[in-house]
Design a protein that fits this description.
There is one protein chain. The chain has about 170 residues and is mainly α. About 70% of the residues lie in helices and about 0% in strands. It has a domain of about 110 residues. α1 packs antiparallel against α2 and α2 runs antiparallel to α3. The termini are far apart. It catalyses: a ubiquinone + NADH + 5 H(+)(in) = a ubiquinol + NAD(+) + 4 H(+)(out). Pfam families: Oxidored_q3 (PF00499). GO terms for molecular function: NADH dehydrogenase (ubiquinone) activity.
């Protein structure tokens, strides 16, 4: 389990480096979706499976809007990818800074311990995040519907703003 958590943490950091180092919005949105998925996997590893599911669904809705917005506004015929020279220099620079920060973290604070989410109660029959399911659907059901409706409305607003005079991303239809 510790090895899987380490792999997820490294993947999360690499996804964030992919977002920070890429000037093309297509690849940056892809890195952001990858980082969101790996971050939700980390939450599952630490014992918050329901929170991970809710965040992943919210991220999917938000990333759909972000990707539609970036695809509509960025009309580059040849976007720069991660293998191009300027982007590769950014990647190497960010990874070098992260390695230096990681070394100073280990030297100053030590490795420490990672606590999972299963330690919330000694004699508990239900995990701590499962009790949130009933509360979310009983008290927060209206807010879930409102949040989904707002994401749906935002998608249409972004597509209408990006359309402009030349029909933007909808010109092919």
């Amino acid at each position: 389990m510790a090895f899987m958590t380490l792999i997820l943490m490294v993947s999360f950091v690499l996804g964030l480096v992919a977002v920070a180092s890429n000037p093309s919005p297509y690849f940056a949105a892809l890195g952001l979706v990858f980082s969101a998925g790996v971050g939700c996997g980390l939450l599952v590893g630490f014992g918050s499976s329901f929170l991970s599911l809710v965040l992943f669904l919210i991220y999917l809705g938000g990333m759909m809007v972000v990707f539609a917005y970036t695809a509509a506004l960025a009309a580059e015929p040849y976007p720069e990818s991660w293998g191009d020279r300027p982007v590769l220099l950014y990647v190497v620079g960010y990874l070098g800074l992260l390695i230096l920060a990681g070394i100073s973290f280990v030297v100053d604070w030590g490795w420490g311990g990672w606590m999972g989410g299963g330690e919330c109660g000694e004699m508990s029959m239900v995990r701590g995040d499962f009790s949130g399911v009933a509360l979310l659907y009983s008290w927060g059901g209206g807010l879930l519907v409102l949040g989904g409706w707002m994401l749906f409305l935002t998608l249409f607003v972004v597509l209408e703003l990006a359309r402009g005079s030349s029909w933007g991303a909808l010109r092919v239809v």
